[in-house]
Write a structure and sequence with these properties.
- The complex is a heterodimer.
- By secondary structure, chain A is α/β, with parallel strands linked by helices.
- In chain A, the strands form two sheets. Chain A has a six-stranded parallel sheet, sandwiched between helices.
- The longest helix of chain A has 23 residues.
- By secondary structure, chain B is an alpha/beta fold.
- Chain B has a single domain, classed as Rossmann fold (3-Layer(aba) Sandwich).
- Chain B has six helices and eleven strands.
- In chain B, strands 1-11-6-3-2 form a five-stranded parallel sheet. A four-stranded mixed sheet of chain B has the order 7-4-5-8.
- The longest helix of chain B is centred in the first third of the chain and has 11 residues.
- Chain B starts with a helix and ends with a strand.
- In chain B, 42% of the residues are buried.
- The chains are: A alpha/beta, B alpha/beta.
- At the A-B interface, helix 2, helix 3, helix 4, strand 1 and helix 8 of A face helix 1, helix 5, helix 6, strand 8 and strand 9 of B.
- Strand 9 of chain A pairs antiparallel with strand 8 of chain B.
Amino acid sequence: MNAPIHKEHAELATEFVSNRERAKWHDGSLWFVRQKRDRQTNAIPEWETLRELAATIKRHTLAKLPFYLEEFERNATIMGAVVHWARDAEEHNRIVLQILEDHGAKKIVKSKSMLTEECHLNPYLERHGLQVVDTDLGEWIVQLRNEPPSHIVMPAIHIKKQEISELFHEKLGTEDGNNDPTYLAGEARNHLREKFVGADAGITGVNFAIAQTGGIVVCTNEGNADLGVSLPDLHIACMGIEKLIPRADDLAVFTRLLGRSATGQPITAYTSHFHGPRPGCKLHIILVDNGRSKIRASEDFSRSLNCIRCGACMNTCPVYRRSGGHSYSTTVPGPIGSILAPNRDPQNHGDLPFACTLCGSCTDVCPVKIDIHHQLLTWRKELALKKVVPWSKRVSMIFAAAVLKRPWLYALGGKVARMSLRWMPRWMIYNGLNAWGKKRDLPPAPVKSFREQYRSRNKG
Amino acid sequence: MATAKDEILNALRKQIPIETPNLPEVINGNWIRYPDPIDHFSSLIAAVGGSCFVVNHIGDVETQLQNYDVYRNAERIYSQVPGIESHFDLNSVAKPQDLEDLDFVIYPGEFAVAENGAIWVTDKNLKHRVIFFITQHLVLVVPKSRLLHNMHEAYKELEFKEPHFGLFVSGPSKTADIEQSLVIGAHGCRSMQVFLIDG
């Protein structure tokens, strides 16, 4: 087994929680968004019906994906767009570069797109001498800090306003020590306006692509995607092949679910429907596989392709909230990311399905009914079979299986444990071998086991 | 050599077919309706940082807007609503970048949706769709009779048969990317007024 290329989740999470005050603040910020979500969803009596419909539409689309991809390509072409296909990230990046070069574009404004993050498009374009500016405020902040987003909807959720103020002061020359979010966002607006007006091309992601009409839908709150593609005469839209929906009518379901689930808004401020380019302009749409067809082939994990990237599973996850997005070392962190990443690279991301308490809260909030925590449990099994699980976990499982197979051994083990927990010195219980004893004490051992209590209760 | 398209499609087609549920009905259904949709819509517009006014005729829009300093002092106004005058002819503007200093846009919304405070606008008969986003302030005028209850009614109205741009807009542009503090006026408009008008 090769050594992972980055630190494990548990190690990065330990670093994150070592700053207790900050970890608490991070946890609270995300829980606040989760509560906003609850207020919105509780106000819709048919919420559960919508989730069921969305899941059914996604399952249907996925089953007939080749059909809908071709239907989309045909109709988008009729509308005047140019459709490209990319097998993987590298091919996607090459296509984007080619389009930009053919167009003579040097300065590019980009709106949030997890797909281009996944493909590492920015560094690729920069290596080829192009200037790329992320225009979503949160993404721009992390771009200036030279780090990846820590959340798919709120990329800068891990950063404090004092740090943003310092960053802007250093990079843009804003007032030293002015931490007012309105002031800071206003300065960003002024600065980015120049970028928008001077841009040669705009790149966006895609929230939904409609097979029946050949249109694409992009949702933002800031209006950055729209500004970025309504000024320059070239729009490149990058999408994973799972973003398709069959009919425009299906948007009635998805637009109701997305904003409410993501940030607790009834709808995003801008929900833009692009059918073809502006007159005299160009619209290119790139359909990217990059491992998605492989996930579709898996009976266990194909449902994870239902995902509409709302981020609700992250906001509710007790592990994500207390360990931060960067601890996952993946483009999509949190519960859904922990399903997607091991598909791509089990060696490097095999620890993620274990960064989960199996509480099931993610599954409860998922607007497209992905059985997230069940899939994470399935991953653990797969990874154990593939032997990508660390030896300590495998050995303890063999040991546990041996004990649980023999009731007498289990009863004896329990007795010994109850005795020793009471009498053993502290250092023998709490040491490097007991991962469960880190940062917490075991509960006091009861005098009698459950089975003993049960027996005496039945007698009495 | 097989193209990327062929390879992707072939890979998908070779897979064991997954169970295919039928596409469900999504337009007709028992969806939320409001006893007073105007009231619900207005409160949502306020909640997302905009203002909503219910008026009798187009003259009232202008009267209300005159209350705003930013409107009285506006140097560049574009209106596509009959009865409110534009400061200039949009068709004579060559490049969208030339609209950088646009102060106000007054535009007809085709319909509005009570459940989420969204208004549908399109770029039909509009040379530069950037006006929706580049303007400092956006005013939308929608007939009261065109206030729908929910998004299912909304998509029932929509057809995408020819190339165009259409947009649900709900409130001014906003961001909460700095410590979850809501800031109105991110990249798009800084304020939005909606007028529901008789008719």
